[in-house]
Amino acid sequence: MNGLLVAGTTSDAGKSVVTAGICRWLARKGVKVAPFKAQNMSLNSYVTREGAEIGRAQAMQAAAARVEPSALMNPVLLKPGSDRSSQVVVMGRPVGELSARGYHEGGRQASLLPVVTEALAELRASYDAVICEGAGSPAEINLRHNDIVNMGLARAAGLPVVVVGDIDRGGVFASFFGTTALLAAEDQALVAGYLVNKFRGDVSLLEPGLEQLRALTGRPALGVLPYAHGLGIDEEDGLRVSLRGAVRESVVAPPHGADVLRVAVAAVPLMSNFTDVDALAAEPGVVVRFVDRAEELADADLVVLPGTRGTVRALAWLRERGLAQAIARRAAEGRPVLGICGGFQVLAERIEDEVESRAGAVDGLGLLPVRVRFAVEKTLARPVGEALGEAVEGYEIHHGVADVRGGEPFLDGCRVGSVWGTHWHGSLESDGFRRAFLRRVAADAGRAFVPAPDTSFGALREDQLDRLGDLIEQHADTKALLRLIERGAPAGLPFIAPGAP
């Protein structure tokens, strides 16, 4: 045995955080550890060094484990294109677009179980421990027959399971009991214990409930993790500035100069890789917020159009809400606008899309001298370059191919006046480039903002991951976790019939 599955009573219970925390805790102990998520549904993705696309959360977990991310760590990635369909990415490469029903009921998901188990087996052969993350809840009984990420994976790979519950939402004891009771006997035999997440207050007040939970289920609580501010990580979905841990608006450190700098991020439909703005939020004196109304741009010094898996849909959304007109006025006034990936495409003169939306030829906002044509083949790359006199690294994930016809070169895109566009995600994580870019933005916006000379995004991320490791080390039963990783679920765990006790 050298594995563990972290499941959750619900989506967003804290599985990703706990998985990352366990990885960092083990890595600090000298254990060679890797993360794994069999199937991820997210528009927030990353490109590995070998050019494979995986969930950004798994890339973050690999950083927690201090190992290089690979396609083995997330063999199946689903990228929603609408409420009912997703692009299916297998071992880092897109293989087609499927409806939810076609994926779950058409046999496609079940057929991927061998791919998933082979990837996990390869990781387990190479690492001392593999910490697997589930998806949603293991008690989604309507999907159990085709499951490859929760109990279906645990059964196939013989993994012990720890269930995480978010007590901040309320009802955590019922969630733990109900989740276990809804599982088949063979699945219940692998559920070895529970982790309470986001607890506020005196733990002694919780202990009677934990004792009753053990009496009812025969399974222990393996820890109570306190509510910790500012521990957001690279999200699978949701509007969150990760390093500041706040929904919709970042917490701002005091500015290094006289002014703060206000950044408005358009919350476009099917927004992807919104973590690009985390590096901006990491700068002292930079306020980052997500907006969906034109009036919210009035006091913004920089407007960011982020990535999206629906460029044409985002264009329509911007026009319907008056945001397109407001952005055009800003550009005419020389006020800064940055488009990243899909946001770059939105700024183009013309878009020809027979792939993503199949809308054909569509007029863009016309703020950059660029024509975009959508190709069937997806571009997945890890480019390096230079801009504003500074070294830059990034990653590319897009079907749109840009034909840049003028302007000043900017990474793979261009700049005209105060409007900037590039396909490169992650470029703002390059500290020197980010500071140079913000100096230009501040000058164009007329702000006496000065980037701090010593802000290191990488160091902030490392500190964040260490704090996740501290949560596990200080508040979880680490001896019990090690036993599960090394020996598997203990024999003789009791069966709980639905409706019991």
Automatic annotation (TrEMBL):
Pfam families: CbiA (PF01656), GATase_3 (PF07685). This is Cobyric acid synthase. The gene is cobQ. Belongs to the CobB/CobQ family. CobQ subfamily. The keyword Transmembrane does not apply. Residues 5-237 form the CobQ/CobB/MinD/ParA nucleotide binding domain. Residues 262-431 form the CobB/CobQ-like glutamine amidotransferase domain. InterPro entries: Class_I_gatase-like, CobQ/CobB/MinD/ParA_Nub-bd_dom, CobQ_GATase1, CobQ_N, CobQ_synth, GATase_3, P-loop_NTPase. It comes from the Bacteria. The keyword Ion transport does not apply. Pathway: Cofactor biosynthesis; adenosylcobalamin biosynthesis. Keywords: Cobalamin biosynthesis, Glutamine amidotransferase. CDD domains: CobQ_N (cd05389), GATase1_CobQ (cd01750). GO terms for biological process: cobalamin biosynthetic process. PANTHER family: COBYRIC ACID SYNTHASE, DETHIOBIOTIN SYNTHETASE. The active site is at 341 (nucleophile), 425. Catalyzes amidations at positions B, D, E, and G on adenosylcobyrinic A,C-diamide. NH(2) groups are provided by glutamine, and one molecule of ATP is hydrogenolyzed for each amidation. GO terms for molecular function: ABC-type vitamin B12 transporter activity; catalytic activity.
